[in-house]
Amino acid sequence: MNLSKIYTIKKEKQYLWVLLTLVVFVLGCFFFKEFINYKIVALILLLVVSIHAMFFDIKPTILSAVISALSWNFLFIPPVFTFHISNPEDFLMFIMYFAVALINAVLLFKVKKFEEKAREKEEKEKTLQLYNTLLNSLSHELRTPISTIIGSTDILNEYHDKISLENKNLLLQEIQIAGIKLNHHVENLLNMSRLESELLIPKLEWCDLNEELFRIIKNNFQNNPRIEFHINDSLPICKIDIGFLEQIVINIIKNALIYTPENKKIHIDINQTNNILQLSFQDFGNGIPEEHLPNIFDKFFRVPQTITGGTGLGLSIVKGFVDALNGKIEVKNTTPNGLKFDIFVPVETTFINNLKNE
């Protein structure tokens, strides 16, 4: 058990819980004192104090130790109903009980503090590692489009009258492509920040998913011939957050284009059954080793010994938006090769005739 786990209870309520549990155990032992030796009662009450020390702050725990010791003396140590202890052995046992209860409380409290500091240190180291990973990734991924934009604009400014119109158009095209890449990286960082804030609330609206997916692919991938979207004519009108859907589709396709050979295609299928929307993305690349599948949605994760490219945020952003839609995402290697993502999202559906009547 993790001793650093303290219930999120206000200190006033901790005192109340200490008193209530002690009353229950003390009265329980008192009613059965004919069957329980008073020395056994000491062990039971010491266990209660130990439990208090595991879950409560130091002051309520010390109060537990004091009250339990006095209760044990008054109700169980002969002569009962008095704080007088006639037997020297019982007096020594009482002193030992009180000392053990206090030492137990203090030691467990220090252990909790130590674990808390260790956990904070571990979290800081993890944050620093992620920060360094992000900086290293961004320094590489952002440097290329920024250098392209600066270099192309310098050439246009310096040799504006000397270069041909065709070369000018090529330079402008390079600037546009670099700008799109730069915008994609910035969007991913902003999306990750939004997801980690846990303030994303889906704005659901009725839409034709065939049309929306076609629009997303056309606007972001210029009808790339490597992308095959299979339209489902039997699909009903669905209620979904189109912005979330767009981020999911863009990031999965971009990831697939990076890791799928140029001569291979990416298939996109869409289905709906029992108000569950299923989006499937199948590529025909090399897949990834099975041992890395559980980590594929982790931030900044890249499969070792693969091509460079991307910040390692794309798939974690996909999972974040799928979670925000109360959906789930599955990934698996396919036969003979390739990787398949299946996304399942609960949606409200209707057919066009019903929608017109609303």
UniProtKB/TrEMBL annotation:
Keywords, alphabetical: ATP-binding, Kinase, Membrane, Nucleotide-binding, Phosphoprotein, Transferase, Transmembrane, Transmembrane helix, Two-component regulatory system
Subcellular location(s) of the protein: Membrane
Residue ranges crossing the lipid bilayer per the database entry: 15-32, 38-56, 63-85, 91-109
EC numbers for this chain: 2.7.13.3
Domain of life: Bacteria
GO molecular function: ATP binding; phosphorelay sensor kinase activity
Native organism: Flavobacterium urocaniciphilum
Lineage: Bacteria, Pseudomonadati, Bacteroidota, Flavobacteriia, Flavobacteriales
Protein name per the record: histidine kinase
